[in-house]
Amino acid sequence: MPLAPPTYEVCPNCATPLPDRPNYCPTCGQQNRELRVSFRDLIGEYLGSAFNVDAKAARTFRDLLGRPGHMIRAFNEGKRVRYVPPVRLYLFVSALFFLLTALLSTDDRPRRTPIRFQSDGDSIGITTMQDLDSVELPLRGNDAVFLQSELAQIAGYSNEQLDSLLSAKSAEPTFLNRLMVRRAVRLLHAEQHSFVDQFFQIISVAMFFLMPIFAFWLWLLYRRSSRYYFEHLIFAIYFHSLVFLLMIVQAGVELIPAIGELINALIGLLILVYLLLALKQAYQQGWGRTVAKFFLLLMVYGLTLLVSFAVSGFMSLLIF
Question: Are residues 269 and 134 in the same domain?
Fold first, then answer.
């Protein structure tokens, strides 16, 4: 919508003289135009802004999905106005994903309690309890079973009483074992989605730290390209936005069991292919170098994700 002609000779906001009637006040930046607008002008201005935003969003999603690496290269070349800002795009897509995940986690599927204990140096892992009557604990040299009635009484146990119970089950009376048992009791008496929601809240925060780490790995891999770290961070933001978009599709498709597994496999493959093509387009290196750096990036970032999810899961148990 075109701007109305400058109106005031004195800014109504800060009282700065405007003898030349500029379009904007040089002191406070307020637009120098008639502040009382008709309903028609108000609707016209809103529609103009809305269509401009819609066109920018459509262009952003079109190029993000259909032209891997193109937006990253365009942004780093200074062509930025045509697209939704990367941080705003990421915040919108990630918020939509976590909202959808939270909604889908409130269904009525049977609750499953994760639990396994450390014994004779065994590491803590995850198994699932199908039958709420008991929980079988796979321990070295012996299988111990916690009955639901025992778990129900543990809430009032002291550490000494719990240590005695663990010893009777051939499990080491360690802090981690006590923690896992007490959390298992909470999980038995809580809604399944409450723990899942807690986990995803932590993961949503962790992603803000994972993207800079992803950008750091890119910076190491392309340190001879004379690119700033900020440019690698833009790549990380756009790529993770794409991943969240595909995960939104994945979450919706999981509601259709007949094709869910096939679509999940295709989405996983699509993410890998997209990353490879985006690296090629954004950094403009030969295929040999791009493929080599692609596999190195998968290895180091895959380890980063494993550590992040493990820490997030443990923190969820501590907080839950």
Answer: no
How many separate domains does the chain show? Answer: 3
199 and 297 fall within a common domain: yes
pLDDT digits (tens, 9 = 90+) for 130-175: 444 555 444 333 445 566 566 666 666 777 777 777 777 667 777 7
280-315 pLDDT, tens per residue?
999 999 999 999 999 999 999 999 999 988 887 777
Q: What is the β-pairing status of strands 142-147 and 134-139?
A: antiparallel
Q: What is the pTM of this model?
A: 0.65
